[in-house]
Amino acid sequence: MTNPIDPGSLSPDQARALFRAGLRVPTAGWCSGWTQANLIAVPRDQAYDLLLFAQRNPKPCPVLDVTEPGAVSAPLFAGDLRTDLPGYVVYEHGEPVAEVSDVTGYWRDDLVSFLIGCSFTFEDALREAGVPVRHIEQGTNVPMYRTNRMCRRAGEFGGPLVVSMRPVPAAQVADAVRVTARYPSVHGAPVHVGDPVELGIADLDEPDFGDPVEVRVDEIPVFWACGVTPQAAVMASRPKLAIGHAPGHMAITDARDSRYLVP
Amino acid sequence: MTNPIDPGSLSPDQARALFRAGLRVPTAGWCSGWTQANLIAVPRDQAYDLLLFAQRNPKPCPVLDVTEPGAVSAPLFAGDLRTDLPGYVVYEHGEPVAEVSDVTGYWRDDLVSFLIGCSFTFEDALREAGVPVRHIEQGTNVPMYRTNRMCRRAGEFGGPLVVSMRPVPAAQVADAVRVTARYPSVHGAPVHVGDPVELGIADLDEPDFGDPVEVRVDEIPVFWACGVTPQAAVMASRPKLAIGHAPGHMAITDARDSRYLVP
Protein backbone atom coordinates (compact mmCIF):
# COMPACT_ATOMS: atom_id res chain seq x y z
CA MET A 1 0.00 0.00 0.00
CA THR A 2 1.11 3.56 -0.59
CA ASN A 3 0.52 6.46 1.72
CA PRO A 4 -2.70 8.37 1.25
CA ILE A 5 -2.15 11.76 -0.39
CA ASP A 6 -2.27 13.85 2.77
CA PRO A 7 -1.92 11.82 5.98
CA GLY A 8 -1.93 15.07 7.98
CA SER A 9 -5.56 15.73 7.10
CA LEU A 10 -6.93 12.35 8.18
CA SER A 11 -9.04 11.85 11.29
CA PRO A 12 -7.81 9.38 13.92
CA ASP A 13 -10.58 7.01 12.85
CA GLN A 14 -9.56 7.15 9.19
CA ALA A 15 -5.90 6.60 10.00
CA ARG A 16 -6.69 3.70 12.32
CA ALA A 17 -8.78 2.06 9.58
CA LEU A 18 -5.81 2.24 7.19
CA PHE A 19 -3.50 0.72 9.79
CA ARG A 20 -6.05 -1.96 10.62
CA ALA A 21 -6.10 -2.80 6.90
CA GLY A 22 -2.34 -3.36 7.03
CA LEU A 23 -0.63 -0.06 6.17
CA ARG A 24 2.73 0.06 7.96
CA VAL A 25 4.24 3.57 8.10
CA PRO A 26 5.77 5.83 10.72
CA THR A 27 3.08 8.24 11.91
CA ALA A 28 5.03 11.53 12.17
CA GLY A 29 2.98 14.13 10.35
CA TRP A 30 -0.22 12.07 10.47
CA CYS A 31 -3.57 13.40 11.73
CA SER A 32 -2.54 16.97 12.34
CA GLY A 33 -3.83 18.27 15.67
CA TRP A 34 -4.45 14.83 17.18
CA THR A 35 -2.30 13.45 19.96
CA GLN A 36 -0.13 10.43 19.25
CA ALA A 37 0.87 7.93 21.90
CA ASN A 38 3.34 5.18 22.66
CA LEU A 39 1.92 1.80 23.63
CA ILE A 40 3.31 -0.58 26.20
CA ALA A 41 1.19 -3.45 27.47
CA VAL A 42 2.21 -5.81 30.25
CA PRO A 43 0.41 -8.45 32.33
CA ARG A 44 -1.48 -7.13 35.37
CA ASP A 45 1.18 -8.66 37.65
CA GLN A 46 3.76 -6.26 36.21
CA ALA A 47 1.44 -3.26 35.88
CA TYR A 48 2.17 -1.69 39.27
CA ASP A 49 5.91 -1.71 38.66
CA LEU A 50 5.43 -0.23 35.21
CA LEU A 51 3.03 2.46 36.43
CA LEU A 52 5.47 3.32 39.20
CA PHE A 53 8.34 3.35 36.67
CA ALA A 54 6.34 5.88 34.66
CA GLN A 55 5.59 7.95 37.78
CA ARG A 56 9.29 8.00 38.67
CA ASN A 57 10.37 8.84 35.13
CA PRO A 58 7.72 11.30 33.97
CA LYS A 59 9.88 12.95 31.33
CA PRO A 60 10.19 9.84 29.11
CA CYS A 61 6.99 8.20 30.42
CA PRO A 62 4.14 10.71 30.70
CA VAL A 63 1.08 8.49 31.18
CA LEU A 64 -1.92 9.64 29.16
CA ASP A 65 -4.19 6.67 29.87
CA VAL A 66 -4.15 3.16 31.34
CA THR A 67 -6.66 0.48 30.33
CA GLU A 68 -8.51 -2.00 32.46
CA PRO A 69 -6.88 -5.46 32.24
CA GLY A 70 -7.66 -7.03 28.87
CA ALA A 71 -9.41 -3.95 27.49
CA VAL A 72 -8.56 -3.14 23.86
CA SER A 73 -9.75 0.44 23.90
CA ALA A 74 -9.53 3.32 26.35
CA PRO A 75 -11.24 6.65 26.94
CA LEU A 76 -8.48 8.26 24.86
CA PHE A 77 -8.45 5.61 22.15
CA ALA A 78 -11.74 4.48 20.62
CA GLY A 79 -10.04 2.04 18.24
CA ASP A 80 -8.76 -1.48 18.88
CA LEU A 81 -5.31 -1.48 20.47
CA ARG A 82 -4.57 -4.92 19.00
CA THR A 83 -4.97 -3.92 15.34
CA ASP A 84 -5.15 -0.14 14.91
CA LEU A 85 -1.49 0.80 15.23
CA PRO A 86 0.69 0.53 12.11
CA GLY A 87 3.16 -1.77 13.82
CA TYR A 88 3.92 -3.67 17.00
CA VAL A 89 6.80 -5.43 18.70
CA VAL A 90 6.07 -8.44 20.90
CA TYR A 91 8.60 -9.21 23.65
CA GLU A 92 9.01 -12.44 25.58
CA HIS A 93 11.45 -12.31 28.49
CA GLY A 94 12.78 -9.07 27.04
CA GLU A 95 13.51 -10.45 23.59
CA PRO A 96 11.61 -9.16 20.57
CA VAL A 97 9.94 -12.29 19.21
CA ALA A 98 7.68 -10.73 16.58
CA GLU A 99 7.30 -7.50 14.64
CA VAL A 100 3.76 -7.54 13.34
CA SER A 101 0.88 -5.30 12.33
CA ASP A 102 -1.71 -7.16 14.41
CA VAL A 103 -1.23 -8.58 17.91
CA THR A 104 -4.62 -10.23 18.31
CA GLY A 105 -2.94 -13.63 18.46
CA TYR A 106 -0.69 -12.54 21.30
CA TRP A 107 -3.36 -10.77 23.35
CA ARG A 108 -4.20 -11.92 26.86
CA ASP A 109 -7.06 -11.05 29.18
CA ASP A 110 -4.72 -9.75 31.84
CA LEU A 111 -2.80 -7.28 29.66
CA VAL A 112 -2.84 -3.69 30.92
CA SER A 113 -2.08 -1.15 28.19
CA PHE A 114 -0.34 2.13 28.88
CA LEU A 115 -0.69 5.03 26.47
CA ILE A 116 2.32 7.28 26.90
CA GLY A 117 2.79 10.73 25.41
CA CYS A 118 4.74 11.03 22.15
CA SER A 119 6.82 13.93 20.91
CA PHE A 120 5.17 13.71 17.47
CA THR A 121 2.37 15.58 19.23
CA PHE A 122 4.35 18.82 19.38
CA GLU A 123 5.77 18.62 15.85
CA ASP A 124 2.86 20.59 14.41
CA ALA A 125 3.64 23.34 16.91
CA LEU A 126 7.34 23.21 15.98
CA ARG A 127 6.53 23.55 12.30
CA GLU A 128 4.09 26.39 12.99
CA ALA A 129 6.94 28.15 14.80
CA GLY A 130 9.10 27.70 11.70
CA VAL A 131 11.32 25.02 13.23
CA PRO A 132 12.11 22.35 10.64
CA VAL A 133 11.29 18.72 11.44
CA ARG A 134 13.81 16.85 9.36
CA HIS A 135 12.33 13.33 9.50
CA ILE A 136 9.01 14.67 8.22
CA GLU A 137 10.81 16.60 5.44
CA GLN A 138 12.72 13.42 4.55
CA GLY A 139 9.67 11.17 4.87
CA THR A 140 11.51 8.84 7.24
CA ASN A 141 11.10 7.67 10.82
CA VAL A 142 12.51 9.83 13.61
CA PRO A 143 15.94 8.68 14.87
CA MET A 144 15.91 7.33 18.43
CA TYR A 145 18.87 6.38 20.63
CA ARG A 146 19.52 4.55 23.86
CA THR A 147 21.51 6.85 26.16
CA ASN A 148 23.92 6.40 29.06
CA ARG A 149 21.40 7.97 31.44
CA MET A 150 19.65 5.41 33.58
CA CYS A 151 16.03 5.79 34.57
CA ARG A 152 15.00 5.64 38.21
CA ARG A 153 14.16 1.98 38.87
CA ALA A 154 10.71 0.77 40.01
CA GLY A 155 10.38 -2.83 41.15
CA GLU A 156 11.42 -5.03 38.27
CA PHE A 157 11.68 -2.21 35.74
CA GLY A 158 14.86 -0.28 35.06
CA GLY A 159 16.83 0.68 32.00
CA PRO A 160 18.27 3.51 29.96
CA LEU A 161 16.60 6.73 28.90
CA VAL A 162 15.76 6.62 25.18
CA VAL A 163 15.71 9.91 23.27
CA SER A 164 14.50 11.14 19.91
CA MET A 165 16.64 13.61 17.98
CA ARG A 166 15.75 16.51 15.72
CA PRO A 167 18.44 18.69 14.18
CA VAL A 168 17.59 22.36 14.77
CA PRO A 169 19.27 25.44 13.24
CA ALA A 170 21.32 27.14 15.95
CA ALA A 171 19.21 30.29 15.73
CA GLN A 172 16.03 28.31 16.36
CA VAL A 173 17.08 26.12 19.30
CA ALA A 174 15.53 28.59 21.74
CA ASP A 175 12.24 28.47 19.81
CA ALA A 176 12.31 24.68 19.82
CA VAL A 177 12.80 24.67 23.60
CA ARG A 178 10.12 27.28 24.21
CA VAL A 179 7.52 25.60 22.00
CA THR A 180 8.03 22.07 23.29
CA ALA A 181 8.24 23.12 26.96
CA ARG A 182 4.58 24.00 26.67
CA TYR A 183 3.72 20.31 26.13
CA PRO A 184 4.99 18.64 29.32
CA SER A 185 2.67 15.64 28.92
CA VAL A 186 4.27 14.66 25.62
CA HIS A 187 7.90 14.91 26.82
CA GLY A 188 8.09 18.71 27.01
CA ALA A 189 11.40 20.53 26.72
CA PRO A 190 14.52 18.75 25.42
CA VAL A 191 16.66 16.73 27.82
CA HIS A 192 19.88 17.61 25.99
CA VAL A 193 21.07 20.09 23.38
CA GLY A 194 24.31 19.47 21.48
CA ASP A 195 27.07 16.89 21.72
CA PRO A 196 25.58 13.39 21.42
CA VAL A 197 28.68 11.89 23.06
CA GLU A 198 27.59 13.30 26.40
CA LEU A 199 24.54 11.05 26.16
CA GLY A 200 26.73 8.09 25.22
CA ILE A 201 25.62 8.23 21.59
CA ALA A 202 28.67 7.39 19.49
CA ASP A 203 27.23 7.95 16.01
CA LEU A 204 24.08 9.89 15.13
CA ASP A 205 23.97 8.00 11.84
CA GLU A 206 23.31 4.75 13.64
CA PRO A 207 20.13 5.21 15.66
CA ASP A 208 18.97 2.32 17.83
CA PHE A 209 15.42 2.78 16.48
CA GLY A 210 14.09 4.62 13.42
CA ASP A 211 16.15 6.15 10.64
CA PRO A 212 19.14 8.51 10.54
CA VAL A 213 18.47 12.08 9.39
CA GLU A 214 20.71 14.72 7.85
CA VAL A 215 22.24 17.19 10.34
CA ARG A 216 23.29 20.31 8.41
CA VAL A 217 26.32 22.41 9.18
CA ASP A 218 24.41 25.18 10.94
CA GLU A 219 22.30 22.75 12.96
CA ILE A 220 22.52 21.42 16.52
CA PRO A 221 21.20 18.00 17.45
CA VAL A 222 18.42 18.42 20.01
CA PHE A 223 17.28 15.45 22.08
CA TRP A 224 13.88 14.85 23.63
CA ALA A 225 12.92 12.09 26.07
CA CYS A 226 11.18 9.31 24.15
CA GLY A 227 8.31 6.95 24.93
CA VAL A 228 10.30 4.00 23.65
CA THR A 229 12.00 4.16 27.07
CA PRO A 230 9.52 1.61 28.56
CA GLN A 231 10.44 -0.81 25.77
CA ALA A 232 14.13 -0.38 26.63
CA ALA A 233 13.11 -1.15 30.23
CA VAL A 234 11.30 -4.26 29.01
CA MET A 235 14.43 -5.35 27.14
CA ALA A 236 16.58 -4.73 30.23
CA SER A 237 14.17 -6.19 32.77
CA ARG A 238 12.78 -9.18 30.85
CA PRO A 239 9.16 -9.53 31.98
CA LYS A 240 7.46 -12.66 30.67
CA LEU A 241 5.43 -10.79 28.05
CA ALA A 242 5.14 -7.22 26.78
CA ILE A 243 3.68 -5.66 23.68
CA GLY A 244 4.82 -2.26 22.41
CA HIS A 245 4.23 -0.19 19.30
CA ALA A 246 6.93 -0.41 16.64
CA PRO A 247 9.04 2.69 17.38
CA GLY A 248 7.70 5.64 15.38
CA HIS A 249 4.51 3.72 14.53
CA MET A 250 2.23 5.26 17.11
CA ALA A 251 -1.29 4.95 18.47
CA ILE A 252 -3.27 7.89 17.13
CA THR A 253 -5.62 8.92 19.89
CA ASP A 254 -8.92 10.78 20.01
CA ALA A 255 -7.42 13.59 22.11
CA ARG A 256 -6.56 16.95 20.63
CA ASP A 257 -2.98 18.20 20.96
CA SER A 258 -4.36 21.32 22.62
CA ARG A 259 -5.40 19.19 25.59
CA TYR A 260 -1.74 18.82 26.50
CA LEU A 261 -0.74 22.43 25.92
CA VAL A 262 -0.11 24.36 29.14
CA PRO A 263 -0.72 28.11 29.28
CA MET B 1 3.17 22.48 73.67
CA THR B 2 2.82 25.91 72.13
CA ASN B 3 3.81 26.85 68.63
CA PRO B 4 7.36 28.02 68.13
CA ILE B 5 7.56 31.76 67.52
CA ASP B 6 7.91 31.63 63.77
CA PRO B 7 6.99 28.29 62.22
CA GLY B 8 7.50 29.78 58.77
CA SER B 9 11.23 30.10 59.32
CA LEU B 10 11.85 26.51 60.40
CA SER B 11 13.64 23.97 58.24
CA PRO B 12 11.79 20.75 57.38
CA ASP B 13 14.11 18.89 59.75
CA GLN B 14 13.38 21.25 62.63
CA ALA B 15 9.62 21.05 62.05
CA ARG B 16 9.69 17.27 61.81
CA ALA B 17 11.60 17.07 65.10
CA LEU B 18 8.88 19.13 66.81
CA PHE B 19 6.16 16.90 65.38
CA ARG B 20 8.09 13.79 66.35
CA ALA B 21 8.21 15.18 69.89
CA GLY B 22 4.41 15.38 69.89
CA LEU B 23 3.42 18.85 68.65
CA ARG B 24 0.05 18.58 66.91
CA VAL B 25 -0.78 21.62 64.74
CA PRO B 26 -2.00 22.29 61.22
CA THR B 27 1.02 23.04 59.04
CA ALA B 28 -0.28 25.92 56.87
CA GLY B 29 2.35 28.65 57.05
CA TRP B 30 5.09 26.32 58.27
CA CYS B 31 8.54 26.02 56.69
CA SER B 32 8.18 28.76 54.13
CA GLY B 33 9.49 27.69 50.72
CA TRP B 34 9.34 23.96 51.44
CA THR B 35 6.80 21.71 49.78
CA GLN B 36 4.12 20.10 51.94
CA ALA B 37 2.51 16.79 51.08
CA ASN B 38 -0.48 14.62 51.85
CA LEU B 39 0.20 11.09 53.03
CA ILE B 40 -1.77 7.99 52.15
CA ALA B 41 -0.32 4.56 52.82
CA VAL B 42 -1.94 1.29 51.78
CA PRO B 43 -0.80 -2.34 51.63
CA ARG B 44 1.11 -3.33 48.49
CA ASP B 45 -1.92 -5.33 47.30
CA GLN B 46 -3.91 -2.08 47.00
CA ALA B 47 -1.04 0.08 45.74
CA TYR B 48 -1.66 -0.43 42.02
CA ASP B 49 -5.29 0.61 42.31
CA LEU B 50 -4.32 3.65 44.38
CA LEU B 51 -1.53 4.69 42.00
CA LEU B 52 -3.92 4.30 39.08
CA PHE B 53 -6.57 6.27 40.99
CA ALA B 54 -4.01 9.06 41.34
CA GLN B 55 -3.06 8.84 37.67
CA ARG B 56 -6.72 9.09 36.69
CA ASN B 57 -7.41 11.96 39.08
CA PRO B 58 -4.28 14.09 38.83
CA LYS B 59 -5.91 17.31 39.95
CA PRO B 60 -6.69 16.10 43.50
CA CYS B 61 -3.95 13.43 43.54
CA PRO B 62 -0.69 14.74 42.06
CA VAL B 63 1.85 12.09 43.09
CA LEU B 64 5.13 13.57 44.30
CA ASP B 65 6.75 10.35 45.50
CA VAL B 66 5.95 6.70 46.24
CA THR B 67 7.94 4.63 48.71
CA GLU B 68 9.15 1.07 48.46
CA PRO B 69 6.90 -1.28 50.47
CA GLY B 70 7.57 -0.83 54.18
CA ALA B 71 9.96 2.10 53.71
CA VAL B 72 9.51 4.95 56.20
CA SER B 73 11.35 7.58 54.24
CA ALA B 74 11.53 8.60 50.59
CA PRO B 75 13.82 10.60 48.34
CA LEU B 76 11.54 13.60 49.00
CA PHE B 77 11.17 12.98 52.73
CA ALA B 78 14.27 12.27 54.80
CA GLY B 79 12.29 11.98 58.04
CA ASP B 80 10.32 9.03 59.39
CA LEU B 81 6.84 8.80 57.88
CA ARG B 82 5.55 7.00 60.99
CA THR B 83 6.35 9.76 63.47
CA ASP B 84 7.28 13.02 61.72
CA LEU B 85 3.87 14.31 60.74
CA PRO B 86 1.87 16.25 63.33
CA GLY B 87 -1.10 13.91 63.05
CA TYR B 88 -2.40 10.75 61.43
CA VAL B 89 -5.67 8.94 60.85
CA VAL B 90 -5.66 5.14 60.73
CA TYR B 91 -8.45 3.48 58.76
CA GLU B 92 -9.59 -0.13 58.94
CA HIS B 93 -12.13 -1.19 56.33
CA GLY B 94 -12.71 2.49 55.62
CA GLU B 95 -13.50 3.45 59.21
CA PRO B 96 -11.21 5.81 61.10
CA VAL B 97 -10.10 3.72 64.06
CA ALA B 98 -7.42 6.01 65.51
CA GLU B 99 -6.31 9.63 65.33
CA VAL B 100 -2.77 9.65 66.65
CA SER B 101 0.55 11.47 66.41
CA ASP B 102 2.60 8.30 65.87
CA VAL B 103 1.65 5.30 63.73
CA THR B 104 4.63 3.10 64.52
CA GLY B 105 2.32 0.58 66.20
CA TYR B 106 0.15 0.31 63.09
CA TRP B 107 2.98 0.07 60.58
CA ARG B 108 3.38 -2.97 58.36
CA ASP B 109 6.20 -4.12 56.13
CA ASP B 110 3.99 -4.11 53.07
CA LEU B 111 2.72 -0.52 53.39
CA VAL B 112 3.36 1.66 50.34
CA SER B 113 3.26 5.38 51.13
CA PHE B 114 2.16 7.98 48.62
CA LEU B 115 3.20 11.59 49.03
CA ILE B 116 0.67 13.75 47.22
CA GLY B 117 0.96 17.45 46.50
CA CYS B 118 -0.69 19.90 48.92
CA SER B 119 -2.09 23.33 48.21
CA PHE B 120 -0.32 24.75 51.28
CA THR B 121 2.68 24.74 48.94
CA PHE B 122 1.37 27.67 46.89
CA GLU B 123 0.14 29.74 49.83
CA ASP B 124 3.47 31.57 50.09
CA ALA B 125 3.06 32.55 46.44
CA LEU B 126 -0.52 33.67 47.07
CA ARG B 127 0.56 35.86 49.97
CA GLU B 128 3.45 37.30 47.97
CA ALA B 129 0.89 38.24 45.32
CA GLY B 130 -1.13 40.01 48.01
CA VAL B 131 -3.91 37.43 48.10
CA PRO B 132 -5.03 36.88 51.71
CA VAL B 133 -4.97 33.35 53.10
CA ARG B 134 -7.67 33.48 55.73
CA HIS B 135 -6.91 30.29 57.68
CA ILE B 136 -3.32 31.44 58.18
CA GLU B 137 -4.56 34.88 59.30
CA GLN B 138 -6.98 33.18 61.69
CA GLY B 139 -4.44 30.59 62.86
CA THR B 140 -6.83 27.75 62.09
CA ASN B 141 -6.88 24.73 59.80
CA VAL B 142 -8.01 25.19 56.19
CA PRO B 143 -11.67 24.22 55.61
CA MET B 144 -12.12 21.13 53.41
CA TYR B 145 -15.32 19.72 51.94
CA ARG B 146 -16.52 16.56 50.25
CA THR B 147 -18.16 17.51 46.94
CA ASN B 148 -20.78 15.98 44.66
CA ARG B 149 -18.16 15.45 41.96
CA MET B 150 -17.06 11.85 41.72
CA CYS B 151 -13.50 10.90 40.90
CA ARG B 152 -12.75 8.54 38.06
CA ARG B 153 -12.67 5.05 39.60
CA ALA B 154 -9.59 2.79 39.51
CA GLY B 155 -10.02 -0.82 40.61
CA GLU B 156 -11.30 -0.79 44.16
CA PHE B 157 -10.85 2.95 44.68
CA GLY B 158 -13.55 5.51 43.96
CA GLY B 159 -15.12 8.37 45.83
CA PRO B 160 -15.87 12.07 45.85
CA LEU B 161 -13.53 14.93 45.03
CA VAL B 162 -12.52 16.77 48.22
CA VAL B 163 -11.72 20.48 47.98
CA SER B 164 -10.09 23.11 50.15
CA MET B 165 -11.60 26.61 50.24
CA ARG B 166 -10.03 30.03 50.53
CA PRO B 167 -12.16 33.18 50.45
CA VAL B 168 -10.66 35.64 47.95
CA PRO B 169 -11.62 39.30 47.40
CA ALA B 170 -13.46 39.54 44.09
CA ALA B 171 -10.79 41.81 42.64
CA GLN B 172 -8.09 39.25 43.41
CA VAL B 173 -9.70 36.06 42.15
CA ALA B 174 -7.86 36.37 38.84
CA ASP B 175 -4.55 36.72 40.69
CA ALA B 176 -5.35 33.67 42.79
CA VAL B 177 -6.05 31.65 39.64
CA ARG B 178 -2.97 32.90 37.83
CA VAL B 179 -0.61 32.28 40.75
CA THR B 180 -1.86 28.79 41.62
CA ALA B 181 -2.10 27.63 37.98
CA ARG B 182 1.68 27.80 37.95
CA TYR B 183 1.85 24.96 40.52
CA PRO B 184 0.09 22.08 38.73
CA SER B 185 1.80 19.44 40.87
CA VAL B 186 0.26 20.79 44.06
CA HIS B 187 -3.33 21.03 42.72
CA GLY B 188 -2.81 24.02 40.42
CA ALA B 189 -5.68 26.30 39.45
CA PRO B 190 -8.99 26.19 41.34
CA VAL B 191 -11.61 23.62 40.34
CA HIS B 192 -14.49 25.98 41.18
CA VAL B 193 -15.03 29.66 41.89
CA GLY B 194 -18.19 30.86 43.61
CA ASP B 195 -21.41 29.17 44.69
CA PRO B 196 -20.61 26.21 46.98
CA VAL B 197 -24.02 24.69 46.29
CA GLU B 198 -22.89 23.74 42.79
CA LEU B 199 -20.32 21.48 44.43
CA GLY B 200 -22.96 20.04 46.72
CA ILE B 201 -21.64 21.97 49.72
CA ALA B 202 -24.66 23.04 51.76
CA ASP B 203 -22.94 25.15 54.40
CA LEU B 204 -19.43 26.60 54.25
CA ASP B 205 -19.48 26.91 58.03
CA GLU B 206 -19.57 23.13 58.38
CA PRO B 207 -16.50 21.78 56.64
CA ASP B 208 -16.04 18.00 56.52
CA PHE B 209 -12.40 18.46 57.59
CA GLY B 210 -10.55 21.39 59.17
CA ASP B 211 -12.11 24.57 60.52
CA PRO B 212 -14.56 27.11 59.09
CA VAL B 213 -13.16 30.50 58.10
CA GLU B 214 -14.74 33.92 57.76
CA VAL B 215 -15.93 34.83 54.25
CA ARG B 216 -16.23 38.62 54.05
CA VAL B 217 -18.86 40.46 52.06
CA ASP B 218 -16.54 41.36 49.16
CA GLU B 219 -15.08 37.87 48.97
CA ILE B 220 -15.78 34.86 46.76
CA PRO B 221 -15.19 31.31 47.97
CA VAL B 222 -12.55 29.70 45.77
CA PHE B 223 -12.11 25.92 45.77
CA TRP B 224 -9.00 23.91 45.02
CA ALA B 225 -8.74 20.13 44.61
CA CYS B 226 -7.45 18.62 47.86
CA GLY B 227 -5.14 15.74 48.67
CA VAL B 228 -7.58 14.46 51.28
CA THR B 229 -9.42 13.00 48.27
CA PRO B 230 -7.58 9.64 48.59
CA GLN B 231 -8.77 9.44 52.21
CA ALA B 232 -12.35 9.99 51.04
CA ALA B 233 -11.72 7.16 48.55
CA VAL B 234 -10.47 4.99 51.40
CA MET B 235 -13.63 5.75 53.37
CA ALA B 236 -15.80 4.94 50.33
CA SER B 237 -13.86 1.88 49.21
CA ARG B 238 -12.98 0.28 52.54
CA PRO B 239 -9.57 -1.33 52.02
CA LYS B 240 -8.42 -3.47 54.95
CA LEU B 241 -5.91 -0.87 56.19
CA ALA B 242 -4.88 2.66 55.26
CA ILE B 243 -2.96 5.38 57.03
CA GLY B 244 -3.34 9.04 56.13
CA HIS B 245 -2.19 12.33 57.58
CA ALA B 246 -4.70 14.17 59.74
CA PRO B 247 -6.22 16.67 57.27
CA GLY B 248 -4.22 19.90 57.35
CA HIS B 249 -1.42 18.21 59.32
CA MET B 250 0.96 17.58 56.47
CA ALA B 251 4.26 15.89 55.70
CA ILE B 252 6.85 18.64 55.29
CA THR B 253 9.18 17.46 52.56
CA ASP B 254 12.76 18.24 51.62
CA ALA B 255 11.69 19.63 48.23
CA ARG B 256 11.60 23.33 47.52
CA ASP B 257 8.32 24.86 46.34
CA SER B 258 10.17 26.16 43.29
CA ARG B 259 10.59 22.59 42.10
CA TYR B 260 6.87 22.49 41.34
CA LEU B 261 6.64 25.93 39.74
CA VAL B 262 6.18 25.81 35.97
CA PRO B 263 7.51 28.64 33.81
From TrEMBL, chains A, B:
It comes from the Bacteria. The keyword Lyase applies. The keyword Nucleus does not apply. Its EC number is 4.2.1.-. Pfam families: D-Glu_cyclase. SUPFAM superfamilies: PSTPO5379-like. PANTHER family: D-GLUTAMATE CYCLASE, MITOCHONDRIAL (PTHR32022:SF10). Belongs to the D-glutamate cyclase family. This is Putative hydro-lyase J4557_44995.
